[in-house]
Amino acid sequence: MSYYVGVDVGAGTAKAVIFGNNSIITYSVRPVLDNVAAAAERVTLEALKRAGLSRNSINYVVSTGYGRSSVGFADKVSSEIICHAKGVYYLKPESRTIIDIGAQDSKVIRITGSGKVIDFAMNDKCAAGTGRFLEVMASVLGITLEDLGPLSLESRNPCRISSTCTVFAESEVVILRAQGNSVKDLVAGIHQAVAKRVTILGAGIGFENEVVLTGGAGKNVGIKKSLEEATGMKISTPLEPQITGALGAALIAQNEFGSMHP
Amino acid sequence: MIQISPRSDETQKGTSSLQFFRRNRPERFDTDSMHAFDTSSNRFYLLTDFFGSGKVSFDLDIRYRELLELKNSGKKFIGYIPNGYLPEELIWACDAVPIPLCRGGESAPVIASARCLLRFLDPFCRAQIGYRILKEDPLYQNIDLLIVPVTDNHIRAIADSWNFYTDVPVHRIGVPHAKTDHGFLYYVDGLHSVKEMLEKLTGNIITDQRLKQEIILSNEIKDLLRKISLVRALETGPVSGKEFLRLNQACLYTNPHRILEVLGLVYKKATEKRSIILKRPKVLLTGSTLALGDYKVYDLIEQNGVSVAIEEFCEGTKYYWRDVISGGNLLQRLADCYFMKRIPGAFFRGAARERFQFLLNLIRDFKADGVVWYSLMYRDSFDVEGHLFGNLMKKLEIPFLQISSEYEDSEKGALQTKIETFIEILLEAV
Amino acid sequence: MFSELFKLCGFESGEIKNERSRIDEVFEILEVGPEDIEIAKERIHKYFDIDLLGIRKVLGLWFRELIEMVLAKKDGKRIVYVSYPPVAEIAAALSLSSENIYCSCPDVVLSNTLNLIFNKINPVLETAEKNGLSPGIAFCSYLQTRLGAIVKGIVPKPDLLIASSYLCDLTPAADQWLHEMFDIPVLYVDNVFDVGGEDWPQIEERKAVYLATEMSEAVEHTKKLLGCDLSENHIKKAISLRNSLDSALGEIRRLGQTDPLLLKYNSYKIANELAASCIGAGLRKGEETLRILHEELEKKVQIGASALKKGVPRVIVTMLPYNPELTDVIENLGLAIVGSAALALPGGNPTPPSKFLFRQLAEDLMKWRGANYSSWAYIVHLKELAKRLGVDGLIFWYHYSCRQYSILSLKAKEVIENELGIPVLLLEGDYCDSRSRTTDQMITKLETFAEVVGLRGKNELLRRC
To answer: Which of B413, B417, B428 sits opposite A81 (nearest CB)?
Structure first.
């Protein structure tokens, strides 16, 4: 049997997917601590261990993400936008719009009925609307990232966070907290702010059903709800939204290997 | 395919009036880069090798030495912003030396400019005073006059910053934003003022006869640039986008007779019969400014299996699509070519239609499979036009990518992702 | 629901009754609800000298402008939008030439109402961002206001745009966008930004001729496009009306420099903006309203009443955003804003109608505050103003993407500090958008500046509102 690895090395986390026999064998997600090359190595080894495979059993490796060029053992690199598109399409062929909110950037990707990317928009110059924004806010409020989503759902009266800059929004949240606003209302407001930036980002390319949310923020139920309110569309998230890029990379690995060995 | 061949004698000796400073930083350009401010020698190189059929070499180091000698012999260096609205013919005609101030693509000069200009300005415009502040490029340090053809407030900032923070005399000529009769006369008036200023500075009268000679020479250069450019429309595309860009930019600061020779050789080689036919998808690259040294977009496109078949930028490259009529009222003829017949930049009022039509013609004639719109941050008129052009491309179902740069090192990763993704979309579509 | 608000803005009960259905309609279009009205009332009470009938009536004029603008299409008018800063005499002349033509600057009207009073401009800005104008930053929020409002449908689409592109690159880009998106014809009144201006206040004749030609051609094209009878007489009448308005404003400005100050700066600014842009209601009733205000201010002088304390440090500002909170903060720090480069006319001499009408208009436009001419001219203008008013400091507030001002800010600071020996505070902000540049960010700088210009000790007055 042939096995393929997709490695997605982002700013915050590294993900690896082992793919074979037309299905996901296993995957792994690890934080990027010291350097991206080491993180890629670590996460791949862990995935291999889980799958009970050795390095030699892998036929082809594709890397993607911010640190893709640093993955020394990759046979090919591919842009994370293409990889996310392929990964999401594999999991849900009805998808037509992908919202990916990562640690450092956010993307809106439009795909066709055959999973090809037709348009995309990417916010890379500003932390607002990205995972970094949520991290900063969680830290300011003294809660964990995992607490954000469920807390936001408890709010009945979200605060309005008007600052479009993460740094200034942080100050705004501090002030609002000091004025007695509850943490859940603040958190709900923070989620709405993220959703707003993302909808503005994607306005130029449009949102078409089905819309899928990926990236670390895909685990956040509050973001999902805020995006649904902001876009007026139903949004679904894969069970493991962080690995769609790595999955797409693994699919490309399978394809590349196949074309080399018809 | 560019190769670089460093010269063995690295040091500059006997450089009395020009000063060289080395910046202590690692080599930022790959070995293919033409514009290598090689850290060991601070020189420019251009070598072009067409598929191993023989090198056409042109060592700009010779030009550098020539400039030194020219300066020491008392020639006047006329700095200018090469946005195509200052006819270099006027400068050559008074025996002065045109020095284009069009370097860019680096973050250090933009950072250096912060003491003069605030952030929310086109980084190319900020970089021009930045290079002067850094004192590393002798060309920026040794101009006797700066002529700024002012098109919009960003270019105006170059004129203002040099005026406020250097002792270099700054002469502005205004570029009206519409091709009206009174606009034409205003521009001609500006050319008259340039002529007078140059004559006063150099002590040489710009005669009609001499100006005509320079116009004819310039037309010959433009003719070859057009021919070489049109060769790129062929499927084989023997001249890469980056190679052409370097040739084009070399025309801005090289002795015209020398560059004419080089262009002739390049054209000859480019039209020789080829046995290998390389078919690659092609793009039109367009936008605001293509500075000397800002090759990252070319590299990202062309190193990923796509050719830049043709480019159209307002600043940083030599405009070559039209000749100047070399008879009659020559200043009016210059104005007719460089103002009236020139494709208007985005800063022209209501420029979109004429500009878009020209771009569509380029797409058609060069068989571009997609368009990359590359403009610099904060140049709003280009942002708006890019958005409008993007809408048009969507209607025509031509793949389109709009990107921008602030000349920051940190933006390279994201640019790479966007361009690579666009190329993958393009390759699927082609 | 809104009666109290409109009474606060100088409307009589009878007027409110007559206008009720129109106001209802306008508020529905603008999505202004009871909560917004409460916010507006609160802001008016807090930031304006509401005890003065003149100020209440000025606020009322802006509301009248807003109502006229939003309902112009429904009123069957042909609509012309000018951009800021407008060629005001031509815009006013258009309004005078026919009852069926409505001419206005929506950026300014919405900024002085929806933004300043209701604090409800963000949805408009977001709409503009969603439609291609660089999200968050880098495109002028004034123009985002204009575009967002048209796209959102809260102001009617115009039949003609007259773009004042003699100063700014963004305005013509925005109007070109409108042209391409909605097929609206655009006339550009342009000039070239090529002057060093070292001979200021002398201006180059060729530039005056160029701008005059642009203006006269714009008028000719307007007549053809609208089929209207816009004549030199209309322009002369407009000049005369505006001169009266300017003259009335001149009186207010003189009183705006007294010690102690008689008016809060927010009041002063909204009154002065009548001259900067007001073309409809402002032009018709502006002079009468300002005369009322002038009388009230004279009375204040007589009885020794004031808005600020006597003897506090005096500053001028280049301009300030449509965020009354910032101005309030400056005044709470004990700084008296005695003038603004944006609003003060050099010499205050009205324009006499001249034989060469457009030439005169062009020269006046270029001479106004220097910025329309060259960077150096503006720096000189600022310096002269600071000297004339004998101020203790200068706040150089600039809109970050307003390049004709931001490009010279560092040099202006250097020149004024060196030559006049007064401190200059550079403050970056956004004219209409307070999302990315909030007042809080500026507090520290302002407090420090206030100390530098002579306040002793930390000011205890400043507390968050």
So the answer is: B417
